[in-house]
Amino acid sequence: MKIKFFIFIKLILLGFLFILFLIFSKNIERILLVFITILIYSFFQEEKFDLNYLNTIIIGLVIGLLIGNLAVFWHINNKEKNIPGRNYYSSIENNKTSKTAVILLSRGETENFNPVTILNDIYNNDNLVEKALAPINVFYHKLAYEQMGSSKLNNICENLRIQLQDNLGYEYDVYITYTNINPKLRDQLEKFSSNYDKIILTPLFLYETDEYIELLNYVNSKILYSQTKMETTPLLWESEKLPKQIALKMANIIESKNRSMTGVILMRSDKIPNIKQENEFLSKIIENMNRYEFDSSKILISETNNLSKTIKKNVHRLQEKGVSKIIIISTSNLVDDINTKRNINHIINNINENINIQYVDGWGIGEDLINELEYKARIVNLKN
After folding, report:
1. Structure pTM?
2. Which fold has domain 97-235+369-383?
3. What sign for the dihedral angle of Cα 329, 331, 158, 141?
4. Mean of pLDDT over the chain
């Protein structure tokens, strides 16, 4: 009984350490791996250890995993209250200005692996399953950063902000905020509303997601009790310029003489709130690609659900059409997050077909997108 209890305690510890191993990296990860290896080795060295302890093993590990998960959840919830960067734009002078604030809104991603930020984003989600599996989700992010290097998403958003500021000129102040990382729109809203009489919120989203609708309702409720006027520019699925930019991006990759023999896979969103809106946007992309002599019969639309299966299926279909090259492009994002990049690159590298496949990870910054955002900001400003 004493030996069984001792094993039980070690199993709880093993489960707890495994949770920590999933979310930590570098030196701490290596130290945890050493302790985990020692614990596992000690089990097999136990003289009276056999399969009769199966129930003990299962219960002990489950309890350890639960304790580890709850400890991480508790730590993140307490740490969130003291995360630096809540007053990210504290340098703004506390004086009303006649300028108009244009606030770009996007999902963000830390440049380097940051488990606290990733966990905080997951725990702010209402999905209980995602919360329960949070350490595993963080582990996949860790693998993505290790394999893909740093994320360029925030740098691209900042470059977009700078270019839009140049186009709009002195009468506007352009800022970038995010839904999930600092600077968060929720945290900066009071600062903006106290310094500007007019705010134009410009979402870098194609469609209304639940996250966006919830955030917009929160923003409107806060602005309602202030003297600041806030307007929101239309979502990008209505854009005429963005589909042109995406088509031009494809045309710049493939020479004119090879376009009719090039296959294209348009990756659509895995969370489609409005099928009609998405189909309209994708149709505009295909229409513009036809103008660059791409063959519409060789342009396929692929959902990101069951990513590996759908990509392989569409690659096979395009090969049957005799294409010489395949381009996979993400149509839902300015740039894909690092996890998506890792997954798609891994799938492409494991396709056992003798064909050239190129992955384009989003719209990117282009003149059409900048002009679209500038035009929408000016129109909204003139109406008010």
Report:
1. 0.88
2. Rossmann fold (3.40.50)
3. negative
4. 88
